[in-house]
Amino acid sequence: TGYITLDEGYVNTGSTTSAITYLDGEAGILRYRGYPIEELAANCDFVEVMYLLIYGELPTEEQLTNFRNSIRRHTMLHEDMRSFYDGFPRDAHPMAILSSVVSALSTFYQDSLDPHDPQQVEVSIHRLLAKLPTIAAYSYKKSFGQPFIYPQNDLSYCENFLQMMFAVPSEPFHVDPDFVDALNLLLIVHADHEQNCSTSTVRMVGSADANLFASISAGISALWGPLHGGANEAVVNMLEEIIENGGDVDKYVELAKDKQSKVRLMGFGHRVYKNFDPRATIIKKACDRLLDKLDIKDPLFDVAQKLEHAALNDEYFVQRKLYPNVDFYSGVIYRAIGIPVQMFTVLFAMGRLPGWIAHWKEMHGSKTKRICRPRQVYTGETKREFIPIEKR
Ligand code: CMC
Questions:
Q1: Domain residue limits at 191
Q2: What is the ipTM of this complex?
Q3: Residue range 173-195: average pLDDT?
C-alpha cells in the first residue's frame, strides 16, 4: 500500500494551497486577502468583509451596493420552513436547529445545488448569507415561544439580525448603535481562520461535490464542538461556575493544570497561535470600550481578567504557550448585547459563514481539486479464520 505518513490531528499536514487568509501563529498575524484583521475590524462593515473573502477584493461602492441589494432579496425564509420550528423541542440547542435548517435549504432550493454551475453557486451563496441570520433569530424566538419577526430589508445586516432577535410585534423597537458596532466587529474577527476544523470539514464534504448547503451544514456541526466554536459558550459557563464557587481563580487554574481533572481552561490555547491571538486582543479592547461606554459592571469580565492574569503568570501555561483565544472575551460582549449563552456559537457561525463559502468556492475553482480521502495506519487484527455463529 506504500508509505503512509501519520499525523493525527493534522498538526503538520497542509491539506491545500489557499489565497484567502494568512496566519502567522508565532507573530500573532492574521490577514484576510492580505488586509490586517486590525484594519478591517476598525474600518469595515461585515458585508464588505464577506465580499472581500468570497471575491478576493474589497468592493467598490457600486459593487457593495449591488451585493447588499442582492442579499436583501433573499432574507426571508420560505413559509413552509417555519413548520420545522414547530417540530423542534423548545429546549433544542440553536446550533442543532441551525445545521438542520441549513441542510434543509437544499430541499427548498433544488435550482441551486450544482457546484459546477457558477450561476447556481452564486445564488446559493447569496441565499445562505441572507438567510442564516433569519434562521438563527427564529431559533432563539422559538426557544421561548415568541412570534418570529420577519427580516426588515432597509436595515443593515447586523441591525436586521438584532431586530429579528429582540423585537416583539407589540412594541416599537430601537436597535442600539453601540450593539450594532460591537456585533459588526465580532462577526469580522470571526469571518475566517484558514484550515480550522469546521472549514476543513466544509472543504472535505465539498470535495465530494456535495452542494453548498450540505457542506455548510456539516461545517456548522463541526463548529458546535466545545474544542472549537462551542468554546465561547463553555467560557461563560466556566466563569459562572468560578463565581458561584466563590471566585477563586487560582483554584481553577490549578484544576485546569491537573490532567486527572479533565478540566481545561476554556478560551485558552490554540493550535496555531503560540504568542497571542490577535483576535483576542481586538475583542478585549472592544469589550473594555463597550462596558465602559454603557457603564456596565459585569462580574464575569472581572473574573475573566483575573483568570487571564493568573494563567499568564503560571509556569504551566507559559511553558505550553497557552494564551487567551478568540473565545475568551467574546462572550462578555455578547452578554452585554443581551445575547443568551446558547446563541454564542450561532453568532460564531454567522461570522464564519463567508469564510466557509470562500474556501468551498476556492476549492471548486482549483484545477487540482480531488476528493479528500486521507489514508490510515491499520492497527486491527491480521487475517483471521471465520468462525460459524454456532461455534462462537
Ligand atoms: N487548558 C489546560 N491545558 C491546556 C489547554 C487549556 N485550555 N489547552 C492546551 N492545554 C495543554 C494540553 O493538555 C497539552 O499539555 P501536555 O503537553 O502536558 O499534554 C498542551 O497544552 C498542548 O495542548 P494540545 O491539546 O495538544 O493542543 P491542540 O493544539 O491539540 O489543541 C485547543 C488546541 C484549542 C483544542 C486546546 O488548546 C483547547 O482545548 N483549548 C480549550 C478550548 C478552546 O478554547 N477552544 C477554542 C479554540 S480557538 C477558536 C476555535 O478554534 O474555534
A1: 23-227+343-365
A2: 0.97
A3: 96
